[in-house]
Write a sequence for this structure.
């Protein structure tokens, strides 16, 4: 579980996401694949013979693959607060790194859906005047999300630059 | 340098219904031109008549079943109803200029008040469509991020529109209200005028125009052959003809007599043969500039310059000009920009040719003190230029295939919802650029002009 860093110069100090998001995503994956496995194996097994039920294994393979994939994706998400800008890095195959100067922030948004709330998660989204700057940090602990929001808003006000 | 009112205010654009008199408005309330109701009334009347015509036989039969007197009476009633609708909506539309805002109050049943902050003005356009020119009226549009179609002032009498534009710009520039009202039009200096001959030749040399013409001529024949159905071919041909018109004749009409002038309150663009348009872009509002060099223009050394202003529909800066002339105009738009001095470095050959075969040679990047310029395209070469001060966020993206070859893309997002992309840079170079660009965008913003440019 990470807390924000405030090193002002040099290499950014990256902070990863807390484990809650991974748990949530893996849980969803397990629920869906198990449901699909049952939905595939049971009718096939009853109607076409027990051997056909093995087709349900396909979903279990998918589960194993997705399990690893989700873990890698979750590990790839990280962010760093530097003196003047926020860095967000993500993606395993398609890597993307975003730099948003604090002065360019128009609005900071903390959102939390019903499922996320149950798992104690919240995501922070930054909006600049450019719609294309997609700066979102998902799956934060609400306290950290709020801390980040307050800090970003304060810094954004201090360095405000608008368009 | 701090900019007054640079922090976003949530109530800046609030459409809250206020009472009959907005509290504390120093500017007097004014109404639009008396001819405005005509425009508002015509839309519903033509819509009704169009509906009757389109319904065809049945509706006409139904109409014919009434005696002539009754029909005339109905028509008169229709005109009266819609005329009074137009009159009432005109009566209830007011605008006023306060120290910091332009307020537009509209609506008979659903009241709407738009407060447009003057220091956030991105552009001011005075448009005179052909019919309006005959009547001596003009439309005034103020571009602020988030403004809608209904926030334009249509119509004002021509002198009023020009005077209001001058006043708005003077106030936006930071002059005192009393001073601003009397300042009048800022003097302007002509930078460039596109000769009609050049415009015609440039359009004849555009592949896009020929493609539109060819599509417009070939498509009807093909559809006719394939379907034998008149209505189907008409349904397909009409939009095509529209596009063809827009791409050729419409473009000519819009870009006729294109004049670029400079004045203290910004860049002035005058153009149009039938519909005259007059755009003013205050200093420091241009987010990106794009230089387009179509294949057939290159021998003549011609370029087309497009610009992006946040919240504005204006897209063209110069329809056609020589490269030197275009660079001179761009240097006025982006102060300190020296485009001729930009040296483009190509993408690394080793990696790029496997990621984007052949076309990778078109990619180029140049970073100067003020500008970030990225080039792409081989046949039609496009160079996109963004001042560091206008960059909102920087993104580095790398797909799996790109990683194999050690290249990455750099995206610079700007406020006009345009993104300047430098494709296929070496991975190490791109990472260094990402950091350097963030620093540059921050520091050059601090040195740029304030929103109120005369303060």
């Amino acid at each position: 579980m990470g807390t924000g860093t405030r090193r002002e110069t040099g290499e950014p100090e990256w902070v990863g996401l807390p484990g809650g998001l991974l748990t949530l995503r893996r849980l969803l994956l397990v629920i869906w694949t198990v449901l699909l496995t049952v939905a595939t194996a049971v009718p096939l097994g009853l109607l076409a013979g027990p051997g056909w039920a093995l087709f349900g294994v396909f979903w279990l393979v998918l589960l194993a693959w997705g399990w690893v994939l989700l873990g890698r994706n979750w590990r790839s998400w990280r962010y760093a607060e530097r003196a003047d800008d926020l860095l967000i890095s993500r993606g395993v195959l398609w890597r993307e790194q975003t730099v948003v100067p604090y002065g360019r922030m128009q609005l900071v948004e903390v959102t939390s859906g019903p499922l996320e709330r149950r798992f104690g998660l919240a995501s922070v989204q930054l909006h600049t005047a450019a719609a294309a700057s997609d700066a979102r940090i998902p799956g934060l602990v609400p306290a950290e999300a709020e801390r980040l929001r307050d800090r970003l808003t304060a810094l954004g006000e201090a360095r405000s630059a608008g368009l | 340098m701090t900019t007054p009112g640079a922090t976003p205010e949530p109530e800046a654009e609030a459409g809250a219904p206020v009472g009959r008199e907005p509290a504390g408005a120093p500017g007097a309330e004014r109404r639009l031109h008396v001819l405005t109701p005509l425009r508002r009334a015509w839309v519903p009347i033509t819509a009704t008549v169009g509906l009757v015509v389109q319904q065809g036989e049945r509706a006409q039969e139904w109409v014919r079943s009434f005696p002539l007197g009754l029909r005339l009476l109905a028509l008169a009633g229709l005109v009266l109803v819609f005329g009074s609708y137009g009159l009432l909506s005109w009566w209830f539309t007011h605008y006023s200029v306060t120290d910091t805002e332009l307020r537009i109050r509209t609506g008979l049943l659903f009241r709407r008040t738009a407060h447009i902050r003057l220091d956030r003005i991105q552009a001011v356009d005075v448009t005179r469509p052909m019919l309006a020119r005959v009547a001596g009226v003009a439309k005034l549009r103020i571009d602020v991020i988030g403004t809608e179609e209904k926030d334009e002032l249509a119509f004002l009498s021509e002198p009023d529109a020009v005077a209001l534009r001058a006043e708005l710009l003077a106030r936006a520039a930071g002059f005192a209200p009393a001073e601003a009202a009397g300042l009048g039009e800022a003097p302007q200096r002509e930078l460039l005028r596109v000769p009609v001959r050049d415009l015609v030749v440039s359009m004849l040399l555009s592949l896009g125009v020929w493609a539109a013409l060819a599509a417009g001529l070939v498509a009807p024949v093909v559809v006719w052959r394939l379907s034998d159905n008149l209505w189907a071919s008409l349904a397909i041909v009409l939009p095509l003809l529209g596009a063809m018109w827009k791409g050729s004749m419409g473009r000519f009409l819009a870009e006729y007599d294109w004049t670029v002038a400079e004045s203290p309150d910004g860049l002035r663009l005058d153009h149009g043969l039938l519909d005259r348009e007059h755009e003013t872009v205050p200093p420091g509002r241009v987010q990106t500039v794009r230089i387009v060099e179509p294949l057939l223009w290159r021998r003549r050394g011609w370029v087309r310059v497009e610009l992006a202003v946040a919240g504005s529909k204006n897209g063209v800066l110069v329809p056609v000009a020589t490269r030197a002339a275009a660079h001179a105009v761009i240097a006025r738009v982006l102060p300190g920009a020296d485009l001729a001095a930009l040296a483009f470095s190509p993408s690394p050959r080793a990696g790029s040719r496997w990621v984007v075969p052949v076309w990778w040679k078109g990619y180029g990047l140049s970073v100067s003190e003020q500008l970030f310029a990225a080039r792409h395209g081989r046949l039609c070469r496009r160079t996109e230029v963004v001042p560091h001060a206008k960059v909102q966020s920087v993104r580095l993206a790398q797909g799996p295939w790109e990683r194999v070859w050690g290249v990455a893309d750099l995206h610079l997002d700007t406020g006009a919802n345009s993104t300047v992309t430098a494709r296929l840079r070496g991975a190490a170079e791109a990472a260094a650029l990402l950091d350097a660009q963030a620093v540059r965008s921050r520091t050059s913003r601090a040195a740029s002009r304030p929103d109120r440019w005369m303060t």
